[in-house]
Specification:
Elements (H helix, E strand, L loop, with lengths): L10 E6 H14 L5 E5 L1 H6 L2 H10 L4 E4 L2 H9 L6 E3 L5 H9 L3 E3 L3 H14 L4 E7 L7 E2 H12 L5 E6 L11 H19 L6 E5 L1 H6 L7 E4 L22 E6 L2 E5 L4 E2 L5 E2 L4 E6 L15 E4 L2 E6 L7 E4 L11 E8 L2 E3 L1 H8 L3 H5 L8 E4 L1 H5 L1
Helix pairs in contact: 1-3, 5-6, 7-8
Bound molecules: pyridoxal-5'-phosphate.
């Protein structure tokens, strides 16, 4: 699993597993000792490759891997990854059977589902771990905070199930205005106080995503669910930073063709760019069909460590940049579209701003047509 992986197409994503190890080491070093880490690897670990990054995370000593679909969890197990897996959201009865068979921890948020799962568990002679999600204001999954204590008290009587955890999820944790997060936290705490009154203690309580982990230490409880942070990508501009962490994803290509054009010439579909003087146009063999934002006359790429502006409208399979200021530019020179080259960097946030979206949407937006290449110096030394 390294640079030796086969790659033919001159457009690729590099995933730096050594930097991922470093990010985990930095997070582990600064977090409170008791705090468990759940690493969310949903949607192919936000486009990075779930299996590859889950292996590194498991070596880094995390408590749980998190997925949203059962298929994602099955893929981890099929790859031989034995780290406990927590499946978020709601399950069908067919999915519950798979959770039971593979010892996946899932969320059980209503008594009918709980009864069905208890029946399956009894039949299999197993006592599966379950968590309860409390809806404290996201209005997505979970039992409403006001009804949570009664529900949990009933669930606890179903001894076929092991009630291991209680969670909630923030609607906004990474912006400066934390007022709604504080309201959600207060509601969660209300549930915990009510449970304490009834003598119910649930071992693993968790509420934070990356933004919450960084900025709401009072909401850490026993475990935090971080997806984007270990990948070196921050959920917002304003949340706290951990010194030394860095993104592990770089998007690269090579110049497929060079065109010398004259004043008045047009570039690309829709004639969106007109040259005002003779220009050197570099053609890059990737486009919005690979997940690059569909933009025109905006954005930049890095060639020879210098910025070159994107000109015209980018196509499904190609985009053009003005390389007139790049000395000695040649066909098949390496180009960086996301990440560092020399002293320059194009960040995930730069691309998110171009697309008018969030950073998450950029990193997991690259299509499967782009090969992923894994850099792993430590693995090569073994
Ligand atoms: C995706 C997700 C997370 C991880 O969020 P990040 O902002 O990437 O850390 C945590 N919890 C739940 C319920 C999620 O859906």
């Amino acid at each position: 699993m390294s640079t030796k992986m086969q790659q033919i197409r001159p457009a690729w994503l590099e995933i730096d597993l050594d930097q991922l190890r470093q990010n985990f080491a930095l997070i582990q070093a600064e977090k409170p000792a008791h705090l468990k880490l759940l690493f969310v690897v949903k949607d192919n670990a936000y486009g990075h490759g779930a299996i590859e990054v889950a292996r590194i995370a498991s070596e880094a000593g995390i408590a749980y891997l998190g997925t949203v679909t059962v298929d994602e969890a099955v893929a981890l197990r099929n790859a031989g990854i034995q780290t406990p897996v927590f499946v978020m959201a709601e399950r069908t009865i067919e999915e519950l059977q798979v959770c039971l068979d593979l010892d996946l921890t899932c969320c059980i948020n209503d008594l009918d589902t709980a009864a069905a799962y208890a029946k399956l568990a009894k039949k299999a002679g197993k006592r599966p771990k379950v968590h309860v999600e409390v809806d404290t204001g996201m209005s997505r999954y979970g039992v409403r905070w006001k009804a949570a204590a009664d529900y949990i008290a009933s669930l606890q009587k179903m001894t076929e199930l092991e009630l291991e955890g209680l969670l909630s999820h923030f609607a906004m944790s990474d912006e400066l205005d934390k007022s709604y997060a504080h309201l959600q936290l207060a509601r969660f705490q209300e549930v915990l106080d009510e449970l304490a009154k009834r003598g119910i203690d649930i071992p693993i309580k968790h509420m934070c995503n990356s933004g919450g982990y960084l900025d709401l230490p009072q909401a850490h409880f026993d475990m935090v669910r971080t997806g984007t942070l270990p990948l070196g990508v921050y959920p917002s501009r304003v949340c706290r930073r951990i010194e030394g962490t860095a993104p592990i994803m770089t998007l690269k290509t090579r110049i497929a063709a060079l065109q010398q054009i004259e004043a008045g010439d047009k570039v690309g579909y829709g004639m969106r760019y007109t040259a005002s003087s003779p220009r050197t146009i570099a053609v890059l063999p990737l486009g919005y069909g690979d997940g690059y934002p569909r933009i025109r006359n905006a954005g930049e790429v890095l060639i020879h460590g210098k910025r070159a502006p994107i000109v015209g409208g980018n196509a499904m399979d190609a985009m053009m940049v003005d390389a007139s200021d790049i000395q000695g530019v040649s066909q098949w020179d390496e180009v960086v579209l996301l990440g560092r080259q020399g002293d320059e960097e194009i960040t995930v946030r730069d691309l998110a701003d171009l697309k008018g979206s969030v950073t998450y949407d950029i990193i997991n937006g690259w299509r499967s047509r782009i090969p992923r290449i894994y850099l792993d110096k430590e693995d090569e030394r073994r």
